[in-house]
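Before the break, one more example. Copy the sequence into your notebook; we will annotate it together after we see the structure.
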Amino acid sequence: MDRITEQKQKAAAEAVKHVRDNFIVGLGSGSTAALAIEALGRRIKTENLCIKSIPSSYQAFQLAVDCGIPITTLEEYPQIDVTIDGADQLTPELFLIKGGGAALAREKIVASASKLNVIIADQNKKAQHLGANNQFVPIEVIPFALTPIKHKLAELGAKPVIREVKGKLGPVITDNGNAVIDAYFGEIVNPTELAVKIKMLPGVAETGFFVNLTDIAYIGTDNGVEKIVSKKK
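Here is what the structure looks like once it is written out:
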């Protein structure tokens, strides 16, 4: 196991401690969130933990099924007790960029429906400002609006790139049937303001900015786990 995976596993182990019997649990998407899903599956087997989960993507859904985690829906449970997810980048204020796995819209819906949002990450995901180290901002876009949105993002100072599928021709398609633009802005001084500007563009379904949504973050390091608690909660 490599160092980064070990760091993520340490963070995931702390995050799943927030899950209690009879909880409705939101499941994030991506390789980091997958470690938390696997850890929850182990708790179900070893502790007879009784929970229901709401996955934020087909990938998370399939992994939850494989791990023996019961599935439910937002229609049945519109309020979630705790959601555990990863992040592409996060700041000391717990401003996040998410969406590297193209599940940003559903991840944000699940997060917004949760009483408690817990983020797990390795130490390389920390930054003083979002957009540092050439980190792009994923933007989910209705396909009909791709070209106009690319032009509008360029006017806002971004280098927009339509995300392409690896191994075949064509754009990545989300679980919602939309495309994804990865927008490179460089360091972002005011992510809240920029998120609003982008979200207001007709054709934008969602942005990868997750601002004021995170309650706790666990950052895995070589020496343990760093815990960051939101000051606004």
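The mean pLDDT is 96. The radius of gyration is 17 Å. Try to locate both features in your own notes.
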